[in-house]
């Protein structure tokens, strides 16, 4: 199966300015992400950024780099600029790998691309939630899917809601019904083009989750449990320390 990876990497960050260039055990974060993507089966990896410093930081990593506009609302819009600039056909499969995921396992990049089929032109992944606190944490996005593996809804709220078990607040332990949404997406280029053309939906604006725009417009989103654990991305100084701890343990 042929597919391409695009990694959107905006230089500015409210909490971590210059995040793509943050040093992670001797390498800038964007290089770490690109190297993980290059170990997948993708036919090409492009880093899409709004800053020349990010392009320069990739050096000899093997990933391509493309300067994009600095006024994009989201990483999806930045990925679409690459698709248009490269003239990729509507049926091309494009995987959006977040630019702050330096530990993303290559196997899950291949996995999400393989979920695209005749019924679903968009795909993403999830994994079990094991900590009770994460079910109730609005920064941990939850997803529920039907028995065919099609996403029903994404939320920052604790869905599904255990009617009897959650009545008195968070329990000491949870069961196996909760899934964390992993922010990796595969699209056919035509679906991505449609997505960025849609007006943000009320549900999307309420939850601050752009994938709800796709559901609101009737797109079927394929969902599967990730073949490997996916560490969270880098959004805070605590995340940096967590990633450094992993890297120091394997290098």
Give the SSE map.
Layout: E1 4-9, E2 23-24, E3 27-28, H1 29-38, E4 45-49, H2 52-58, E5 64-67, H3 75-86, E6 93-96, H4 106-114, E7 122-128, H5 132-135, E8 142-145, E9 151-155, E10 179-188, H6 189-197, H7 202-207, H8 211-216, E11 221-225, H9 237-250
Helix pairs in contact: 3-6
Protein model, in words:
The chain is of the alpha/beta class and 251 residues long. Helices cover 31% and strands 22% of the residues. The protein contains nine helices and eleven strands. It has helices spanning 29-38, 52-58, 75-86, 106-114, 132-135, 189-197, 202-207, 211-216, 237-250; strands spanning 4-9, 23-24, 27-28, 45-49, 64-67, 93-96, 122-128, 142-145, 151-155, 179-188, 221-225. Strands 5-4-1-6-10-7-11 form a seven-stranded mixed sheet, with helices on both faces. Strands 2-3 form a two-stranded antiparallel sheet. A hairpin with a 5-residue loop joins strand 8 (142-145) and strand 9. Helix 3 crosses helix 6. The two termini are 31 Å apart. The mean pLDDT is 94.
- Beta fraction: 15-25%
Low-confidence parts lasting 5 or more residues at pLDDT below 50? none
State the distance separating the first and last CA atoms. 31 Å
- The radius of gyration over CA amounts to 18 Å
The helicity comes to 25-40%
Order of helices and strands: EEEHEHEHEHEHEEEHHHEH
General shape: globular
The helix/strand class is alpha/beta
**Could you report the average pLDDT, rounded to the nearest whole number?**
94
* Biggest β-sheet description: 7 strands, mixed
Number of H/I helices? 9
Strand segment tally: 11
Spatial ordering of strands, largest sheet: 5-4-1-6-10-7-11
